[in-house]
Amino acid sequence: MSVSEAGRTFARPAAYTDETRLHEALALLRRESPVHRVEVPGYTPFWAVTRHADVLEIERDHTLWLSAPRPLLRTADLDAALETRRARGTALRSIVHMDDPEHRVLRAVGADWFRPKAMRVLEARVRELARLQVDRMAEYGGACDFARQVAVHYPLYVILTLLGLPESDFPRMLRLTQELFGQHDEETGRGGGPQGHTSVLEDLFAYFHELTAQRRARPTGDLASEIANARIDGRPLDDNTAASYYILIATAGHDTTSSTIAGGLEALIRHPDQMRRLRDDPGLLPTAAEEMIRWVSPVKEFMRTASADTQVNGTPIRKGESVLLSYPSANRDEEVFADPFRFDVGRDPNRHLAFGSGVHYCLGAALARMEIRALFAELLPRLASVELDGEPVWTATTFVGGLKHLPIRHVMKDS
Q: Which InterPro entries match (predicted)?
């Protein structure tokens, strides 16, 4: 594989379905071209940043490196379609898309719901939902697709419970989330290119506009009510800003965690010594959860745009040029992680960047950690045995994703 071929990996959704080849490409770039110019037909050129130190430096300087106007990698056609929506005032525009001071003010609207005090209140419900999912797993008769039948449902139930959505709407939210993040995947995407992606957003906006109206008319004390009735400088959020907030929480808040849970179990199956170690010492669950997050890195990239001429690791970047921050690469950086391709449930320190850093640090990081710990705390003591029952399959993506199929055979101690 040449350096140029490795660079084109970032614009190939199918590249993320082959973990071995993906990491070969990323390792090559870290060694030979850590700040690499990528020019691929159909995409506006960008610089791929693959080393941990460089990603961290960019994320911590939010005045030089801006989220707007290009917060993530998209085709030029999709960028154009979304620019049209922005001009009309109908585009998805969440805190991911914003910079300070607007970002700081809007982030504060939901921040209290993800602080430690709120997490302690939610913990009992998270544990209950984890137990219900493991109970369901026990009913599958010794075989299931863990990714589709367990991992995707559990964090979805948690986050939509937090928002206060009715359980009857959960299947709809699951489908729309998979269509949104799996737009490049033949199985999960809606298809239709930019128009298909836009139609998914329109369906999400329609749902959450209705929710906003309901919560403004009858607040119910949940996170959805908090967002619907928030005021900034004395004015309520406009409907699209409120809907964008919901979409961020309802989609990113569960898809990333489900990918980590599925990928975490797959890693334990492939590393039975670490499975035994974690069973023998449940006190390792906090570090094991961090290692699962590092290992999976469910968010593949975010992008930043230079607000002035600068350089990254000696490479000149002009004002207005964009960089892609590769989290799977940063989280395997040999300069930061001892033996980075070894799955180690006791890894400490573990300075992964899967949640980002700086002002855009993941709002739901504490909740994700709690969900992962709770699920494996419930699952591992009840598993007598577990093994793969076929080949795992990854989602084709360039943004968020992980395993979409994890066929397993298992024996539960209570079955």
A: Cyt_P450, Cyt_P450_B, Cyt_P450_CS, Cyt_P450_sf
Residue 239 pairs with which residues in a beta bridge? none
- CB 146, CB 396: distance < 8 Å: no
What pLDDT is stored for residue 155 in this prediction?
92
Cα separation, 350 vs 262, in Å, equals 20
Query: Which token pair is 92?
Result: 């998805």
Within 8 A by CB and 6+ apart from 82, the residues are 74, 91, 92, 198
R_g (Cα) of the chain, nearest Å: 21
The proportion of the chain whose per-residue pLDDT surpasses 90, expressed as a percent, equals 74
Spatial CB neighbours of 48, under 8 Å, sequence gap ≥ 6: 7, 10, 29, 35, 36, 38, 323, 324, 326
Question: DSSP 3-state assignment of 74?
Answer: coil
Alpha helix stretches (DSSP H) within 139-192: 146, 153-163, 170-181
What are the structural domains of the chain? 3-412 (1.10.630.10)
Dihedral (CA of 256, 262, 263, 264) sign:
positive
CB 412, CB 383: distance < 8 Å: yes
Contact 326, 300 (CB under 8 A): yes
CA dist., res. 388 & res. 405, Å (int): 11
Per DSSP, the three-state class of 409 is: strand
Instruction: Name the 3-class secondary structure at 400.
Output: strand
Q: Is 0.85 surpassed by the pTM of this model?
A: yes
Helix ranges, 61-169 (H):
76-88, 102-111, 116-138, 146, 153-163
Residue 75 identity: T
- The residues that bridge with 410 in the sheet, in sequence order, are 386
C-alpha span between 149 and 26 (Å, rounded): 31
pLDDT, residue 166, reads: 86
Peptide bond into 349 cis (omega under 30): yes
